[in-house]
Amino acid sequence: MALTFASHARRLLITGAGAPARSLHAEPYQAKVGVVEFLNGVGKGVETHAAKVEEAVGGDLQRLLEARTLRLKKLGIPCKHRKLILSFAHKYRLGLWKPRAEPRKVE
């Protein structure tokens, strides 16, 4: 009985059962991500600030990823959009999110 439980537990650990199923079709992602592509990927109205942010960080995505909320606030970006930018920047740094080649259709 204990051997059966141990093999079942090992199988769950190896296969990752309980993890979300992944799609077999790869989603198209941006090959090279710039500041504008990053903000367009975030969506939700954040892309309206693309010109201001790109000018402030000099078009360097790395500087945007290192930006703090106070710097974005000085650019006149509303709190909700700052929060989205910083949240997606953190996900991007960790490799958990990438902007898509085409924006998602919201229906």
Automatic annotation (TrEMBL):
It comes from the Eukaryota. InterPro entries: SAM_Ribosomal_mS41. Residues 35-95 form the Small ribosomal subunit protein mS41 SAM domain. This is Small ribosomal subunit protein mS41 SAM domain-containing protein. The lineage of its organism: Eukaryota, Viridiplantae, Streptophyta, Embryophyta, Tracheophyta.
